[in-house]
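Render this sequence as a predicted structure.
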Amino acid sequence: MSVVHIDAGVGARRPDLAATAPFLRACRGERPATTPVWFMRQAGRVLPEYRSLRAGIPMLDSCRDPALITEITMQPVRRFRPDAAIFFSDIVVPLVALGLDIDIVAGVGPVVAEPIRDAAGVAALRELEPNDVPYIADGVRTLLRELGGTPLIGFAGAPFTLASYLVEGGPSRNHLRTKELMYREPKLWHDLLDRLAGITTAFLQVQVDAGVDAIQLFDSWAGALSEADYRRYVAPHSARVLGAFAGQVPRIHFGVNTGELLAVMGEVGADVVGVDWRVPLDVAARRVGPHRALQGNLDPAAVFAPHDVLDAKIRDVLARGTAAPGHVFNLGHGVLPETDPGVLAHIVDVVHAG
């Protein structure tokens, strides 16, 4: 297969690393000798050392301690030897830094004490300043010293997903309040997403300025929308965020249940489009088009299959991934908490063996 070089948005914070690291090369549409692999929620609840370290420490407190950020980010790197590390944080961290009363409730997710559903609530959202989140830059800088030649991925929540949490007051199965606001008061909706796009951009800029090698924009709930609604109510704001980093670092754009949105999720400024497990990568490559790499997309539940079944599924993902100009292996969502860490190490070995 010929190499398709992806020019837009693939600058490098560490040029020597960009030339050699399989993850960064794949983001540029190259084919390194081994397919790079990392896992979303890499530390996420599966490692006993993570659970021990976090015992008695609230999630948001962990995200504000550079020493904990560093250790939690490094734990899966030591265990699995993935080709990239994902910065330990949470998508609501910048909102909490602005003074919003948000708690991450075990088994539920982010819960917002006072949902935002009117103009006064939107107007109260101020801009994020770097000194609101000093622990983020400190954590990045410490991690770069620890990681050496392993690239570091920074991340943030996309404006739509953040808006959904803020409007609903927490996770939602059908996003009724979110869509009601979107349809009934489109100006207020766009005002809200405009402010959230600014906050998200500022949060990512802190990470990029501190030295992360790539960024990922998580739009976890975008799959609740039709393509028409996504283009009208969401795409301009995600494009603003991703566009701010064109030429600086590779930009990954990921959502869940977004098979019908893959093309537009690439169009808004992604160099790499994350694909969940519902759409085979060769099909996703046709939807996304020839100038973007893909990331994914093993079903997270496949880790519970017998090894022969799991290995066949891994190789199927690898084979289908060759349809894209570049491929970063990952699960099609975050690691499930019941996952055996040994299976994740096995996946890395199988992927690297080809």
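Summary. Strands lie at 85-86, 102-105, 109-112, 152-157, 214-219, 251-255, 272-274, 293-298, 327-331. The first strand starts at residue 85 and ends at 86.
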